[in-house]
Amino acid sequence: MRLWKQFRGSYFLYSFLHDPVAMGSFIVLALLTLAAFGAPVIAPHDPYDTTTINIMDSEIPPVWMENGDQNFTLGTDAQGRDMLSTMLYGMRISLIIGVGATFMQAVIGIVLGLIAGYKGGRVDNFLMRMADVQLSFSTLMVAIFLSAIFQAIFGVAAFESMAVPFLVLVIGIAEWPQYARTVRASVLAEKKKEYVEAARVMGLPANRIMWRHILPNTMSPILVLSTVQVAHAIMSEAALSFLGLGMPITKPSLGSLINSGFDYIFSGSWWITMFPGFLLVLLILVINLLGDWVQDVLNPKLYKG
């Protein structure tokens, strides 16, 4: 109850309730998330159940167009799957990969950033040069390299069954330096303050000072970065899937749906690509708008309200 009262009277909640863009973005994101994870309940069809899919139903246009079918509100794709259902299931996979990859980035980046910023010297130089090397490789290059190794060891069938954890691993490994640099910069500023010096004088071990005292005071930039990185991870997954390095066609994400319909966009079946593309843009847009608002609230120097 005490925490709830503090939250109700906080500037964070006050700013949120008085920012229509933030509220609108949050409502849209909440609805999209509920629709994605509630897909098994609310989706009219199950795109994973091959017994209910008929190839003769392929490329049926949306219901408001000529030759549309009432059973397929947004039409069907080239495999005969209901577009609405496939988009809901695909958005769930995109969100899982986006959040999972961001969590992995955060774990790796926070640990290495804390150590680099607090220890300094050769440790700092080594970890930051390692981050620089990592930044020189794009997510696509890391995906190609790890995908080739994975498929050579386990085979293509195993790769398709492990596509979600594979993409989480790839995007997490490729983009952890963003967190490491952000945390390191915050630690360099925090470790010179009096409370850190007092903790050292009291004889507290370095690990306790880093995790119990310095880390909580670096959470604001971490939260801001996390909102941006979730959107970036979703875009990275979509790009990899579009290039054929991500989710297989049997377990589609928004990116693989866009890819599967790209060959049909000029043949008249534009909805196979356009609808997932619009949903992907909307999802990333509302996450980025929320990220901008979080940055304004948590960083008073940038707050414009």
Automatic annotation (TrEMBL):
GO terms for cellular component: plasma membrane. Residues 91-291 form the ABC transmembrane type-1 domain. GO terms for biological process: transmembrane transport. Pfam families: BPD_transp_1, OppC_N. The chain crosses the membrane at residues 21-43, 93-118, 130-150, 269-291. InterPro entries: BP-dependent_transpt_permease, MetI-like, MetI-like_sf, OppC_N. It is a multi-pass membrane protein. It comes from the Bacteria. Keywords: Cell membrane, Membrane, Transmembrane, Transmembrane helix, Transport. It is found in: Cell membrane. Belongs to the binding-protein-dependent transport system permease family. PANTHER family: ABC TRANSPORTER PERMEASE PROTEIN, OLIGOPEPTIDE TRANSPORT SYSTEM PERMEASE PROTEIN APPC. This is Binding-protein-dependent transport systems inner membrane component.
